[in-house]
Amino acid sequence: MSNTAVGQSLDKYLANLHILYAKTHNYHWNVEGKQFFTVHAKLEEIYEHIADEIDAIAERILIIGQRPSSSLAAYLKLATLKEADAASVGGEAVVKNLLSDIQALIADLKKDIKAAQDAGDEVTADLLIDSLGYYEKTAWMFGAYLKS
Ligand SMILES: [Fe+2]
């Protein structure tokens, strides 16, 4: 819905966050096996963080004078991340799949931060830098988990 480059990149990020929000819930519910407790609990922490981020990104879109996409149908159209099936899944598969999503988000965020800085929108850049820090830390933790 947003019509400036910065608004559009925030809106796409907002759509991807909704996919990730649904997907982390999906895995929180459907993870099975010996890593259940660890992965179940970690995913709850992550989707709670995503919920806060969703609100901050949507409000930033409004602050810069645009309107955020606000329906699941719009998010599905805009998002580049893919949802997961409602099916039993092991802890390692969960972490591998989410790590790949997070790496895609990190690549987008780096481009979006640069675009916001080029547009002179330091506040949006700052908001996205916080997100980048969070997902880089999460990617590091997921990578460490997969080594065991
Ligand atoms: Fe729960």
From TrEMBL:
<dbReference type="InterPro" id="IPR023188">
    <property type="entry name" value="DPS_DNA-bd_CS"/>
</dbReference>
<comment type="similarity">
    <text>Belongs to the Dps family.</text>
</comment>
<feature type="domain" description="Ferritin/DPS">
    <location>
        <begin position="9"/>
        <end position="147"/>
    </location>
</feature>
<dbReference type="GO" id="GO:0016722">
    <property type="term" value="F:oxidoreductase activity, acting on metal ions"/>
</dbReference>
<feature type="coiled-coil region">
    <location>
        <begin position="99"/>
        <end position="126"/>
    </location>
</feature>
<keyword id="KW-0175">Coiled coil</keyword>
<dbReference type="InterPro" id="IPR012347">
    <property type="entry name" value="Ferritin-like"/>
</dbReference>
<protein>
    <submittedName>
        <fullName>DNA protection during starvation protein</fullName>
    </submittedName>
</protein>
<dbReference type="InterPro" id="IPR009078">
    <property type="entry name" value="Ferritin-like_SF"/>
</dbReference>
<dbReference type="GO" id="GO:0008199">
    <property type="term" value="F:ferric iron binding"/>
</dbReference>
<dbReference type="InterPro" id="IPR008331">
    <property type="entry name" value="Ferritin_DPS_dom"/>
</dbReference>
<dbReference type="InterPro" id="IPR002177">
    <property type="entry name" value="DPS_DNA-bd"/>
</dbReference>
<dbReference type="Pfam" id="PF00210">
    <property type="entry name" value="Ferritin"/>
</dbReference>
